[in-house]
Amino acid sequence: MKMNALTAATLLALALTASCRNTSGPNGPTDVSAWKGVMINEIAAHDEIPDADSWVELFNSSASTIDLTGLGLYLTDSYFNGKKVYEAPAGEKLAAGERLLISTADESLVTGIASDAQFVLKLAVEDGTAVDTFDRDAVFASGSAVNTAAGSYQRLPDGASSWRNLTYASPGRENKLFELAATRPNAFWAWSSHVSSLSANNFANLKNLKSLGYDHVILNYLAFEYSNKPMTKAFIAAAEEIGVTVHAWLQCFYSSGSWVNPVDDANNRYKDEIFAGILSRARTYIEDFGVKGIHLDYIRYPGTAYKHNPSAEVTAVGAVTRCCREIRELTDSYDEGLVTSGALMPENGGAYYYGQDYNQMGKYLHILMPMLYRHGSYHYNDDTCRKFANMFGGNTGGAACWAGTTTYSGNDSSVTPMDAESILKDCKVYVGTKATGIVLFRYGLGTFPDVKDLWP
Fold first, then answer.
1. Which of 101, 190, 205, 427 lies at a CB distance of 3.0 to 4.6 Å from 194, suitable for a disulfide?
2. Backbone torsion region of residue 143, taken as left when φ is above 0, otherwise alpha when ψ lies between -120 and 50, otherwise beta
3. Is the pLDDT of residue 15 over 80?
């Protein structure tokens, strides 16, 4: 990714430029063939969002290096009528396939771009002859698309004539929809307090985990609280650049230390407000943070599901399944490859005690994650782990099954972090079963092993 910073003098000159000239020279419009292949490839229009940068990515889709000298970006919106907001420095070159990021963060882009209003952004020469133009309302049918806080307008794929309005951005990287199948099925759960450790020293720990084969982090909901927002957004942006997918870990039927019953037993109905709140939080994680996964935790009852079945139409199983369905409908509505997953209790009787009908849940969730913890409360041996992995993996309703395993030994009140060899031995128990991935609980305990080659 290539970045430019303008000098103070150039910035002042740009700020005084009210508009680009629309008149042609004496010989007509400028011949722009020298710049053929340079285009506006992605736009993050975030001017009305606090603490969010606006930026534009230029892309050279040609097979040759192109000199950008003479080109600028001109913005027309409710404030500006063709204002020059960027000018390529003399001698600025863009190699074939290279991207140039122009951003308010380093003031190479001298003004933000508002996502909640019509705008036209033109890549042009000084006389107004356009090399490329993005007209938001022309592309998105009179304002039907508005950038989310973490999203952008993107040519999809790179250099294409078609545009998409996505909830996640790819500054300096290839524009593409997320595909779960293109990632490795290795993940770990992390608390919000772990973000600082994962981010330290230019994200050294996160980069190391990626090198060991971990492509997914399931990040606790507290990381998405307002006070943690700046650090979490920076972490997610870095994770995306490193190649680690962030899933928001959402607590469904548990809040402030207490279980929440989504069934109104006395009135034989589901408590719609609980489901609406869950969907609202998921939407925030997607639109404000740009996560690519929603992970449902506490998507169950605390062993009391059988007490909350007031009728054949309103049941505990129905409540759990409804939550999974509505989350899937929400994520599918973006049509961006967003992934859904859910944590399962690791024992028989899931429907009766917990309201978890695995086949029903798996119709809507992409990944079921049974917490097959070898330590803690269950102390499962190898044979039991394999038995349950096959049981869950054979009853997913079409979802994948990733086995959850601990990175510590001992019980719930006294744990001992495990070394990498011991954790890897536990992970290998699931190879050859109907589980097709692993999830480690948790970051901060134990030494994570290399799992790049865990799955055949």
1. 190
2. left
3. no
